[in-house]
Design brief:
Its main location: membrane. This protein is an alpha+beta fold. It has three helices and four strands.
């Protein structure tokens, strides 16, 4: 027995068909515009080649004070050592007078007085030179401390294959952002 097919008719709504076609056209156009804007834009980053910190030396002067022991010589009252000379001469003369007799005694007295005067002078001079006292004084001097401060960074980069250099206030890392016009964005966001 033969099988009989019945024919079926499919009715398509015209507005549904038009909407589907317009939707497909819109999606295709939107994708094309988006792809065009991404392809046409150019690089979004400049590649950093080298970063060199820029340093400034800061000098800070300050005073350093220390207490120092200072030895002073007392003021001399008898600058020419007259007292020592006189006492030495009298003592030497008395000693010289004890030796010998007659003219020898006179000669020994004079020699004792001269020798005693010289010795007395030197003894008093030595005593005056050793008559010292010590005080503590504060002595100050200015010293300069130095330190270095990073004030910026000299950055070498390439953008679209072209080398460039810029000074920045921070280390940018490996890339520097670029705006839509192809200029570097140097401020930190």
């Amino acid at each position: 027995m033969p099988v009989r097919k019945e024919s079926q008719e499919v009715y398509v709504n015209k507005s549904l068909l038009i909407g589907t076609v317009l939707g497909a056209v819109g999606v295709t156009a939107g994708g094309a515009v988006a792809t065009y804007s991404l392809v046409d834009r150019g690089p979004q980053y400049a590649e950093v080649v080298a970063v060199q910190p820029v340093k400034e030396t800061i000098k800070n002067p300050r005073q350093v004070c220390n207490d120092v022991a200072v030895t002073h010589q007392r003021p001399v009252k008898d600058q020419h050592q007259i007292a020592g000379t006189a006492i030495g001469a009298i003592a030497g003369g008395l000693l010289g007078n004890q030796i010998g007799g007659g003219k020898g005694k006179t000669l020994a007295t004079v020699a004792g007085a001269v020798g005693g005067g010289y010795a007395g002078n030197k003894v008093q001079e030595h005593m005056q030179n050793n008559d010292t006292y010590t005080t503590t004084e504060t002595r100050c001097k200015t010293v300069t401390d130095t330190s270095e401060k990073v004030v910026g960074y000299d950055v070498r980069y390439t953008l679209d294959g072209k080398p460039g250099q810029v000074r920045m206030d921070r280390d940018p890392g490996g890339q520097i952002p670029v705006d839509k016009s192809g200029r570097l964005i140097l401020s930190q966001q």
